[in-house]
Specification:
The complex is a heterodimer of chains A (about 190) and B (about 170). Chain A is mainly alpha-helical and about 190 residues long. Chain A is built from eight helices and no strands. The chains are: A mainly alpha (about 190), B mainly alpha (about 170).
Chain lengths: ~190, ~170
């Protein structure tokens, strides 16, 4: 990804320049080694919980729980995607995508979302339809019910109740997704071109 | 209520296991199989974490972050966002693993139970890698006229950041 190349190189060059100007050269040099080691430590400290959760998600998928959730969501989604509501295959893909996002199955959510996006795009080639914008915005906002990765990081830092942030996460997620959906519905009316 | 949130994870796992067992799923094989895919994810993000944390550590040691934060502090103060969270907000929409690295660093520096550590955690948990997602979706279906998707997604992101700081203040008295 080119963006990350620019950001990463920029960060490194900026720290070298800043470090030299502010007289913190030796600290910058030591930090480079410490940072690389910290990357591995972080990965190791979250490995256990991360794998446990992807395991539990797989159990949910095989037992049909994920599918049940996706059926539960159908009535709400028909309101968000009115132009696609009659297309059964598209709506199935969208509800599977949203429920995978709710469960935090990022790697499953993306292919499902792309499948829905392809069907939506086929109806208006080259230009994003209102439904496609809604689908993309819903996927750029986080709706994960249990943010396991973050909780894992907190637990690794010695937090006794890593999930005590859940109410705050839900509140922030609902507000963020709500504003995203409202923005889509509003822009759909006023956007030209 | 505290006990409920503490027990939420084991209870969730237990309920899922019992439900799946009743539906004749080989729970243990499925668990191990899924855990293996988690390991693949981990292997994929380790190189990014190493690269990003190296740059973040260097940037922090150089004093550049303090300079930038001091510059933007008045604006962020007015919005109720501590300026320490600025680096996290800058990388969040661009790279998930970078945001995880920066966020984990904040959580470890200030402590997982500090207001700042909690705000960083809630920001990570309630926002997504916006630009990456937009690029993947519109790239995959070959659409160049994205209309209002980007501004709408950024509205959601900004709300997420503000709401994260606000929700932590609401849920946890300092």
């Amino acid at each position: 990804m080119l963006t990350m190349t620019i950001i990463w190189t920029g960060m490194v060059v900026l720290s070298i320049l800043c470090g030299l100007v502010l007289g913190r050269g030796p600290e910058v040099a030591a930090a480079a080694a410490a940072g690389a080691a910290a990357g591995v430590e972080l990965a190791l400290s979250i490995a256990g919980m991360l794998c446990l959760w992807t395991g539990v998600m797989e159990v949910m998928r095989q037992s049909g729980l994920s599918e049940k959730l996706s059926r539960l969501l159908a009535p709400i989604l028909r309101r968000l995607f009115p132009q696609a509501a009659r297309d059964r295959a598209t709506m199935d893909a969208i509800s599977a995508n949203v429920s995978a996002n709710l469960l935090g199955l990022g790697s499953a959510a993306t292919p499902l979302g792309l499948q829905a996006a392809r069907r939506l795009a086929a109806k208006s080639p080259g230009v994003a339809s209102d439904c496609l914008c809604m689908l993309v915005v819903c996927n750029t906002a986080s709706i994960q019910l249990i943010p396991t990765t973050v909780a894992t990081v907190r637990a690794a830092q010695g937090c006794a109740a890593p999930f005590d942030i859940l109410p705050a996460v839900w509140l922030a997620s609902v507000l963020s997704v709500g504003v995203g959906i409202l923005a889509c519905k509003l822009f759909a009316r006023i956007w030209r071109g | 209520m505290d006990l409920f949130f503490t027990m939420l994870v084991p209870l969730t796992i237990g309920t899922i296991a019992v439900y799946a067992a009743f539906h004749r799923v080989d729970v243990y094989s499925a668990l191990v199989q899924g855990a293996a895919s988690g390991l693949e994810t981990l292997v994929r993000i380790v190189p990014a974490l190493i690269g990003l944390l190296t740059a973040v550590y260097m940037l922090r040691a150089s004093g550049a972050l303090e300079l930038l934060a001091r510059l933007l502090a008045p604006v962020m103060d007015r919005l109720g966002l501590p300026s320490e969270l600025l680096p996290l907000m800058l990388v969040r929409p661009i790279s998930g693993s970078a945001a995880l690295g920066v966020g984990a660093e904040l959580i470890s520096t200030y402590g997982p139970d500090s207001q700042l550590g909690r705000m960083a955690a809630v920001m990570l948990g309630s926002t997504e890698t916006t630009f990456y997602t937009i690029a993947v979706y519109f790239g995959a279906v070959g659409i160049s006229k994205t209309r209002y998707a980007v501004p709408a997604a950024l509205c959601a992101d900004l709300t997420g950041f503000l709401a994260a700081a606000w929700a932590v203040r609401l849920c946890f008295a300092p």
